[in-house]
From TrEMBL:
Name of the protein in its database record: D-ribose pyranase
Keywords tagged on the record: Carbohydrate metabolism, Cytoplasm, Isomerase
Gene this chain is encoded by: rbsD
A molecular function (GO) term: D-ribose pyranase activity
One Pfam family, short name: RbsD_FucU
Reaction(s) catalysed (UniProt annotation): beta-D-ribopyranose = beta-D-ribofuranose
EC numbers for this chain: 5.4.99.62
Alphabetical list of InterPro entries matching this protein: D-ribose_pyranase, RbsD-like_sf, RbsD_FucU
Enzyme class label: isomerase
Organism: Arthrobacter flavus
Length: 127
């Protein structure tokens, strides 16, 4: 049995296949997601798991070189959370952020019910 890190089997398996430039989206519970096998739905009930919890777990496992938030999240608690995790996000419109969903290697749906609690992470390398 795995002792630490991400325990969710499907999520853990996909994270292990990432390479430089792959996109990971952490999405709130309201984001309309594509019907593909790139979606791992962790939402249990409203607020669980939270955006922060999922972001922290993913960042502990994945090297990230850049991040994107919707410009509508500027100055919000979502921006504060992302910056508190050491990321310096760029901003695009919410519509442009949603347009990136089909190119994501992984989309993680959280139980977060905060508006615009969505982030796109671009994987980096550790060397």
């Amino acid at each position: 049995m795995k002792k630490t890190g991400i325990l969710n089997g499907p999520l853990n398996g996909i994270l292990g296949t990432f390479g430089h430039g792959h996109l990971v989206v952490i999405a709130d519970v309201g984001m309309r997601l594509p019907d593909t096998d790139t979606v791992v739905d962790l939402a249990l009930v409203k607020g669980i798991p939270s955006f922060t919890e999922v972001l922290q777990a993913v960042l502990a496992d994945v090297q990230v070189e850049s991040s994107l938030l919707a410009s509508e999240a500027t100055g919000s608690s979502v921006e504060e959370i992302v910056r508190a995790e050491g990321l310096n996000p760029d901003f695009v419109s919410h519509e442009d952020l949603k347009a990136l969903l089909p190119s994501a290697r992984l989309i993680i749906r959280t139980g977060e019910a905060t508006p615009y609690a969505n982030v796109v992470l671009r994987c980096g390398v550790t060397f």
